[in-house]
Amino acid sequence: MKTELKKTTTKPSTIRISAGERVFHALNYIFFALVSWTTLFPFLNLLAKSLSSEEAVLSGRVSLFPVDIQFGTYLYVLSDAKFMNAFMVSVTITAAGTAIGLIMTAIAAYPLSKPRLRGRKFFILMYVFTMLFSGGLIPAYLLMHRLELIDTLWVLFLPSMISVFNMLIIKNYFESLPDELEESAKMDGATNLTILLRITVPLSLPVFATIALFYAVGFWNDYFASMIYINSPELKPLQLYLKELLIHSNITYQDGGHVPNIDAVMNTTPQAIQAASILVATLPILLVYPFLQKYFVKGVLIGSVKG
Amino acid sequence: MRRNQIWLSIVAVIAVLSLIGCNGSKSGAGADGGEGDGKQLRQLMPFERFEPNGDAVAQYLKEKTDYTVKYEMLPAENADEKLNLLMANKEPYDVLKLAPAQYYQLVSSGALEPLDDLIEQYGANMKQVIGSESWEGARYEGKTYAIPETGGGSGTASYALVVRQDWLDEMNMKAPTNLDEFVTVLRAFKEKKKVIPLTGGKVPVHPDIASVFGLTTAWMERDGKIIHSVEAPEMREYLAFMSTLYKEGLIDSEWGINTADKSIEKVASGKAAMYSPGWWVAPNLVNALAKNFPDAKLGIVPVLKDKAGVARVGSAGNTINYFIAVPKFAKHKEEAVKWLDMKFDKDIFKGIAIGEEGAHHKFEDGVYTPIMPKFADERSNASSFLTGVDEKNYPIYWQARLKKNPVVESYFATFQKNAEGLLVIDPMSAAPPIPDISKNLQRLNKYQEDTFINFISGTEPLDNYDQFLTEWRAQGGEEMVKAANEWYAKR
Prior knowledge:
The complex is a heterodimer.
Chain A: H1 2-10, H2 15-50, H3 54-58, H4 72-78, H5 81-112, H6 120-132, H7 137-146, H8 164-176, H9 179-187, H10 192-203, H11 205-221, H12 224-229, H13 238-246, H14 262-266, H15 271-297
Chain B: H1 2-32, E1 40-45, H2 56-65, E2 68-73, H3 79-88, E3 95-98, H4 100-108, H5 116-122, H6 124-129, H7 132-137, E4 139-140, E5 143-144, E6 146-150, E7 162-164, H8 165-170, H9 179-193, E8 196-198, H10 207-210, E9 219-222, E10 225-228, H11 234-248, H12 260-268, E11 272-275, H13 282-292, E12 298-300, E13 313-315, E14 320-325, H14 333-342, H15 346-354, E15 361-364, E16 367-370, H16 374-379, H17 382-385, H18 394-402, H19 406-419, E17 423-425, H20 435-457, H21 465-490
Parallel strand pairs in B: 1-2, 1-3, 8-11, 13-17
Antiparallel strand pairs in B: 3-14, 4-5, 6-14, 7-11, 7-12, 9-10, 15-16
Helix pairs in contact in B: 11-20, 12-13, 20-21
């Protein structure tokens, strides 16, 4: 961007535009800085709250910096058996769901990307149909019940193994790979499986990384499926745990101050602990991004086809 | 090398899969383990923030009753939807602990087992300790479908105004006793202390102020008939009064959006002078304030009197909080009722509620005092395990819990002392779930809340009240009042 600016300033006739452009750029920077600040601020606020004393949080003295610093909240969260159990459940379904989901999606996309597949349009249409229409919650629940998946970890990732949207992205990527690669491999005597595993897959790492991230974030953040299908407390994933931690016992004046369960109103979770739990639950999925970053920027195809 | 990597990832995936496989089969075995033997039961309970199966009360019950019960909770959100799914699926629960609206929903759709015969046969204890009025409340079309669970005694005051006593002293003023003095005090806070005189959160009908106008609870009795408080002519006076307070800046300008947490925050940080907390939030408020201003002092304002010198405190009364039911498709109906009845045994019930004497509580001079921290460790969630209460003794056990925290204890005690003899109980407190009310109440409450906030903040002129009332009636209010009166006349 800098070089562009320089170019324009060397031409005397465009000085005016360049000044306007500069203002435009400056405003852009300010605008996007503000946008990123609004997304960053809640995190910083949570971080500060999680490190502050409960009294400071309750009296609203904590905004960006911790007040009366303490680390007890993190010790509490990390030593809480329920939290750690939920954490492990989330890690398991995210790891398994992402790995299997990626494989399933890729092997569904591969044949669909080959024009020589008979009835290709029909199969694609079948997939797309499920994007638009679904059976609804109760039939889905009954189906899971018949499959005896209710209240197992399987139900949290098996039904969402193939996302049609992701499958189409991978299919389009496969289609963009040059046919010549496949032809040359065939001339060297490669079978279909060899072509898929040794040529198509290594070339598609960037799209796999992207889709893996989609799946991982999706599985990590999902709480609806677990809320509906999971009954046993020991199988509840992290997001459901968080949801339950953050719900307040809601007694309103309209109930005439009616207290149905005295223990519920007397056991409140300190806000500092709530903040610490949210941060510990969010961190792992944030940490995945830097590791996948390199795949997003690399152009793997450069130089693979010559002549 | 590539091939190695691919194999490696395949092996990794298979390893993860087999791990999950183990997990899944283990939990499956746990759930089905009880099929053969009649001493195993499965109970569904409302959401609460703890793990019921590992709880000390669950252990205690297992030892005392010899039944192994697997407890499951509804989720914190969308609980009704999940309950409907579970029932549509005939999930084999033996005992359900239901909120009133859920009970009505299930009983009217025929999902519950009538319990009259089973209670007659196995329910000796429960018949003795639950009053006939409560049993009446659990009846539906002449049959008993549930065990009613009432609460901690009839009529307690939940709210009272608290005030920064140190500021009052500083200004040489006394706590207000009626509305005129109340306004004078609020003005003084505004002018001399430059703080928000009264904060509060999203409260369309502020109980401490509305009761001065005679608006005690949502339902009221007038000349032998039941009316809803929005129909009472005093509601207009109350709203007009609140609206003038708002205009003058005597109540929080964020009245319409404050949450309870936000209001506590304003008092604790010295930005507001008065607030009306429930006794259970008092410790948060008191501790945070003490940390910020060691010299600050909170005073509890006695109940305000009206022009005739009469004070009133509205109370929801001792309503049925939960209904304990057995679904039609339960596998062990008789065992379930037998187990439920064992929990009403005098000693076992006491053990659930407040634990063992000497270990969890002391009994001195007729008062039960919890022994900390054992009581907090092992009986902090005991209320969730109740499936109906001994209506004579439970209010006493209930009060023992207040002693877990000295601030709660003293606030509760003061609230009750101030309200002594002034309580007006909601006339609908003993009513069973009435369909025409259940289906409308939540929606109408929301409509009332939104409109009242507008009246108070002046966004809508109070002249529109008749319009609101017509709309309220048309949207189900009329139906509700009619059904309430039908029940009240037959009572």
